Amino acid sequence: MTAPVSPLAPAVRQISLQARVPQRPARMRVSLAFVEDRVNVWLRFGQPTAEIMLDRWRRVAMFMPGTVCCRVKWIGNIYGTVLWQLLVMQAPTPFEDAQRVAGVLPGARILLCADGEMQVKAVLAAIDAIEVLGINPCIVAATYWRMVGNRLAARQPLPVYTAERHAAHLAREALQ
Predict the structure, then answer these.
(1) Cβ 31 vs Cβ 104: under 8 Å
(2) Which of 13, 26, 55, 72 is the most exposed place for a label (fewest CB within 10 A)?
(3) The overall pTM is greater than 0.85
(4) Is residue 121 included in any domain, yes or no?
(5) Number of structural domains, the chain?
């Protein structure tokens, strides 16, 4: 004979399962810093929901899930530049996978990664060209940022983001 099953047993199992799943923070936190002639980590674009000043040199920008931002990192020492890095990132939703990025909690969806002075300056020029069109880089199609990353990796010229391409992106978003 089997023991009778309590009607509360499934609910108890669900609660214990939810307790085991680690909860991801609701917002993406991006660490920013500035120490003259040593470290400069700043946002090129992005609209944080909040910024927390930790001290004179460090702050944290908070982003809601789905928002896009661009972080530029420059590190130098007495001999010159050590690191140039530009990341276009999208804040993950609570159940989305996220890639680990130093200084970004809990992680981000990396849309574009540019390393080295020449690549970073090329992407900064592309961002400037988008802003000249009157388009906010935060709402540019994610596929464009991925294409820019692929072109950088292949050492090909970067694609131009046009008003027509942006209109097509907005129309595609409206259909979804």
Answers:
(1) yes
(2) 55
(3) no
(4) yes
(5) 1
Beta bridge mates, 110: 89
Q: Within a domain: residue 3? A: no
Give the confidence band of 84 by pLDDT, cuts at 50, 70, 90. very high
CA 60 to centroid of chain Cα atoms: 14
User: Which sign does the torsion angle of CA 31, 94, 109, 98 carry?
Assistant: positive
Whether 10 is in a domain gets the answer: no
Asked if residue 2 is part of any domain, the answer here is no
DSSP string, 11-76: HHHHHHHHHHSPPPPSSEEEEEEEETTTEEEEEEE---SEEEE-SSSEEEEEE-TT-EEEEEEEEE
Question: pLDDT tens, 91-147?
Answer: 998 888 899 999 999 999 999 999 999 999 999 999 999 999 999 999 999 999 999
Which one, of 142, 75, 81, lies nearest residue 112 by Cα? 142
Q: What is the pLDDT of residue 15?
A: 52
Number of other residues whose CB lies within 10 A of the CB of residue 160? 11
Tokens 């680990």 sit on residue = 100
The range of the structural domain enclosing residue 163 comes to 25-175
